[in-house]
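Re: the request from the purification team.
They wanted to know what the chain is likely to look like in 3D before they choose a buffer screen. I agreed to run a prediction and write the result into the notebook, where they can find it.
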Amino acid sequence: MANLKSLAKDTVIYGFTSIVGRFLNYLLVPLYTAKISAASGGYGVITNIYSYVALIIIILTFGMETTFFRFSNKEDEKPADVISTSLMAVGAVSLAFVALIFLCLPWLAPAMGYADHPSYISVMAIVVALDAIQSILFAYLRYLHRPIKFATLKFLFIILNILLNLLYFLWLPELYKSYPHVVGKIYDPTVGVGYAFYLNLVCTGITTVCFYKEFASIKLRVDWQLLKRMLKYTWPLLLLGIVGILNQTADKILYPIIDKTANGRVQLGIYGAACKVAMIMAIITNAFRWAYEPFVFGKSRDKDNREAYAQAMKYFIIFTLLAFLMVMAWIDILKFIIAPDYWDGLKVVPIVMAAEIMMGVYFNLSFWYKLTDKTIWGAVFSFIGCAVLVAINFAFVPTYGYMACAWGGFTGYGISMVLCYIVGRKYYPINYPMKDIAIYTALTLIIYVAFEALHLSNPWLNIAYRTALLLVFGAVLFKRENIAAMIKRH
């Protein structure tokens, strides 16, 4: 229980950072969708570019976050050498990437469909390189158990980004109408969606500078023998990361390739905006991940923590299922996160959320191959899931549009999750409380079907009806987990 209490404490801190941070970041979604019409395809550009960014950050970090935690907790390794070697390796790869992008930009921009805006690519190349370096520094803060600075820097980026986006997408455009000669010195209306990328660079640069104390405390050197051992451990994680992120972004990267018409980016923008409503799952899984990685690797020296891992899985599933029901119960309110001309995409929300739940379960299951140093299995599972996703996209997007993207992700994650569980039973068996998990999953499905079976014409009555059903889940949870007794004890 002490281990779980520590995990819960860290999850609350990191979770607060993630949840509040993502909530604040959601302010950009209604801003972008209000100021960038669905028909223009501008939000499709943002969705597409950031999908590439998500993929490239995985390549530039090449699993070094997880590898850092693994090696810094080994008794025969020096943590100071681990952090310096990790930072130098990621930094060198990131700088080489930026140089390569600038060298290839003349033909790369047209190939990606941005011949008229090559700066989108060059600017985001610098951003993703800085983000890669920051990922190791943020991992270092987690290793040092410094969640306050972790949270402060995360919030600094978010708040700066929101304020600057409000300035350039809301306030300056209005002022420009009355004072073009004055405002025109710092604002150009023809830049349009480009400001989303340029402002990101400014905020990322400022955040990076705030790590100056950590930079100063690390003696930057490379232990080449240590690096060889780390690379041997991490290369399967790189494959795992690439195919894993492709499970999340391949549809958004492939959509303009499959549908090359002007309508392709329009539909991608609608799909991308609707997915933002479903991102509560990503918030929860990320918060859990930030706390869970140090917890698992930090306790890996103990003889057996499998019971703690099993209970952590159970509660993760319970709260993600609860989050799923909450979003679907209050979707008539949450849909206002995006502008009305994007609402047609809301039908993907339950599918995308279910896929995110399976992704989170897969992440929790994945520790068996990380703790046993059999990370190649992760690459195999994720590759199979990604192959299924890509196949579904190419086969069905021309006919069913972005609905095929949603179901592709659902199927890909589902297959990866099942395979990871089956193989894990052989190499690192954990007795997960399958009965409890099955009960809560079945109850969630029943309540969701009840949601969809009755749609009241009055939206407030509809919300009240769904909230009442949501309380049923809460009551069952309260009774089965004996929450009253837990509260009384603590």
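For the purification team: Residues 234 and 289 are 18 Å apart (CA to CA).
Please add any questions underneath this entry.
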